TrEMBL record, chain A:
Name of protein: FAD/NAD(P)-binding oxidoreductase
InterPro entries, alphabetized: BFD-like_2Fe2S-bd_dom_sf, FAD/NAD-bd_sf, FAD/NAD-binding_dom, Metab_Enz_Cyan_OpOx_G3PDH, Opine_Oxase_asu/HCN_bsu
EC number, as in UniProt: 1.-.-.-
Pfam family name, one: Pyr_redox_2
Positions of the FAD/NAD(P)-binding domain: 10-296
UniProtKB/TrEMBL annotation, chain B:
Coiled coil: none
GO molecular function, a single term: iron-sulfur cluster binding
Location of the 2Fe-2S ferredoxin-type domain: 3-81
Lineage start: Bacteria, Pseudomonadati, Pseudomonadota, Gammaproteobacteria, Lysobacterales
Keyword vocabulary terms for this entry: Oxidoreductase
Keyword field contains Endoplasmic reticulum: no
InterPro entries: 2Fe-2S-bd_N (IPR042204), 2Fe-2S_ferredoxin-like_sf (IPR036010), 2Fe-2S_ferredoxin-type (IPR001041)
Organism field: Lysobacter firmicutimachus
Pfam (any one): Fer2_4
Protein name per UniProt: (2Fe-2S)-binding protein
């Protein structure tokens, strides 16, 4: 353990996306000592991921410039926050493990894509939709390749536009929601002029790309990689030849760190989100949350909630309260998404008995059925015990309604024992932080938190 | 997108634009990433560090997520071919 990180940090922010950057800036504007931690090598989170062709997004440029004008912020990029206890956060960097100590913590851990199993989804060439967008922004070769974009939600358009800008031939965007539902979403957008403008810009950038509503991927085929995709529409089944398939069914909050700290969650569709009060405070004293982690709401929500969390975390409540009305408006947009892009049952039924659901341990759907709960299934099949530790299959199973996500924080914490990501045990021992210690402190936080829930 | 850098993927030299990650280099080399426990080839799924499907060996360190690691000049990447 080095001493470089030993000073007590006033406001420690995990996640350097729009929410985390806004939180850092708000806290630093009052002179607080702020540190930012992010897994990615560069700041920006998902929406502002730097692009090898187009450089840094204007929004990120502004956010970083604003941060630079204040008290210097301590940066920990390419850094995984993987175990935590009250007042301390364990981080893993290429050089090893360090512990950060903090007064207040802001969880701005964002969301990941909801990826659902279908026959052929493990073939190379099949990925998430936002996933392919992220890869392409970082140099993944796509020029001249035929790509089918599918799944659900507005992210499909943003992803397709990025792919096209990089020279991909986007064959079509297949939106599983029915046309009437998508139209209903579009006509309600007028209340958020910025979103409307964004949608119009995307339409221009995607001119000529078919947008097919009520169409979803049934299966992918290919020898060692995807070469053909079967889609289902009202008119029946259709086969489309392609080089790359990008399918995502919207987003689910990243809750690992929150759960491990014992933060209470609330149901979010078939998934869960961190429960926060008007102050963006979680059920655990001194721990705040903002952005997608509190429920999928997009960039505007993330920025405003981040700022509110940052002001409160630094102890400046009036500055935070002045922003409450803007948050309400942004969350109003968020409420539209689940209403219009609900995943249809036919999509949930795509996985067949031998489709692998757990990609880490190669566990097919058939072996996962019939257990009392997720824990029993996990112990019997090793599903969720591989490298991703249930991040992919856990959300998929919840969406398939096989084993619903528990929003009870104690149960959540017991499923999410540290380390959050596989790491060398020796390193943990060296850090004086044994897994047994860590789960003991998780248990005590969740008990303590029951009294402090507001 | 002017600057390029070179690295080795399974002993083959590939170039990527500055700002690219190791996943891009592996894809440009046409290599596959890892092999599943059932022996099938796998490639990136999430693009953001959560699925671990993109694991490769980088400069002698096994199990690194290619989607999270920026490509650096002269890096040596080994995939589970
Ligand atoms: C793949 C993908 C692509 C997207 N593309 C777009 C788009 O083009 N346009 C759009 O409007 N919206 C897009 N979104 C939606 C996006 O989630 C929001 O618009 C916005 O980025 C949310 O901001 P946030 O700060 O809440 O979270 P994020 O931007 O997701 O930021 C969270 C950050 O926390 C970090 N993090 C999480 N857990 C840990 C940990 N344990 N340790 C260290 N760091 C951690 C992550 O690396 C990430 O950088 C995308 C989402 C995804 C998942
Ligand atoms: S592609 Fe999922 S971790 Fe790299």
């Amino acid at each position: 353990m080095t001493d470089a990180h030993d000073a007590l940090i006033d406001v420690l922010v995990v996640g350097a996306g729009p929410a985390g950057l806004a939180a850092a800036r708000a806290a630093a504007s009052h002179g607080a000592q702020v540190a930012l931690v992010d897994l990615q090598a560069r700041a920006g989170g998902q929406v502002w991921r730097p692009d090898v062709q187009r450089g840094i997004a204007p929004g990120l440029h502004r956010a970083l410039a604003e941060l630079e004008r204040g008290v210097p912020v301590q940066w920990h990029l390419a850094t995984q926050a993987f175990a935590s206890a009250p007042g301390r956060l364990l981080i893993e960097q290429e050089q090893g493990l360090h512990e950060l100590r903090y007064r207040s913590l802001v969880l701005a851990t964002g969301a990941r894509e909801l990826l659902l199993p279908f026959p052929g989804w493990t073939l190379p060439g099949a990925s998430g939709a936002g996933a392919l967008q992220a890869l392409v922004k970082q140099g993944w070769p796509i020029a001249g390749r035929r790509v089918l974009v599918a799944g659900s939600g507005p992210l499909l358009l943003a992803a397709a536009a990025t792919l096209r800008a990089h020279g991909a031939q986007v064959l079509a965007i297949c939106e599983q929601a029915p046309a009437a539902s998508v139209r209903g979403f579009a006509v309600r957008l007028w209340r958020w002029p910025a979103k409307l403008a964004q949608a119009a810009a995307l339409r221009t950038r995607l001119a000529g790309v078919p947008y097919r509503c009520g169409a979803w991927v049934r299966a992918a085929y290919g020898e060692r990689k995807v070469s053909e995709v079967e889609i289902e529409t009202a008119r029946g089944l259709e086969r489309i030849a392609c080089d790359q398939l990008a399918v995502g069914y919207g987003l689910v909050p990243n809750l690992e760190l929150a759960r491990q700290l014992g933060c209470a969650t609330v149901p979010h569709g078939r998934h869960a989100a961190v429960r926060v009060d008007a102050r963006q405070a979680t059920s655990v004293a001194g721990v705040y949350a903002a952005g997608e982690a509190c429920g999928i709401g997009g960039i505007d929500c993330a920025r405003i909630e981040g700022a509110i969390a940052g002001h409160h975390a630094a102890g400046f409540d009036d500055a935070a309260r002045a922003l409450y009305p803007r948050r309400q408006r942004a969350r109003g947009f968020a409420a539209l998404l689940p209403a219009h892009f609900t995943v249809r049952d036919e999509v949930r039924a795509c996985a067949t008995a031998d489709t692998l659901v757990c990609r880490c341990e190669d566990v097919p759907l058939a072996r996962l059925q019939g257990w009392a709960d997720a824990r029993a299934a996990k112990l019997a099949t090793r599903c969720g015990m591989g490298s991703c530790q249930g991040r992919i299959c856990g959300a998929a199973l919840a969406e398939l309604n096989a084993y619903p996500v528990s929003s009870d924080s104690a149960a959540g914490a017991s499923l999410m024992r540290p380390p959050l990501f596989p790491t060398r045990l020796a390193e943990l021992a060296q850090a004086g932080f044994s897994p047994a210690d860590a789960s003991a402190s998780v248990a005590s936080t969740s008990i303590a938190s029951q009294g402090s829930t507001s | 997108m002017s600057a390029k850098l070179w690295l080795w993927v399974n002993q083959v030299a590939v170039d990527v634009p500055a700002g690219a990650n190791v996943a891009a280099a592996v894809a440009r080399a046409g290599a596959h990433f890892r092999r599943s426990c059932g022996g099938e080839p796998r490639a990136p799924l999430c693009g953001m560090g959560v699925c671990f499907e993109c694991r490769v060996e980088i400069d002698g360190v096994a199990h690194r997520r290619a989607c999270l690691v920026p490509a650096r000049e002269g890096m040596r990447v080994r995939c589970d071919d």
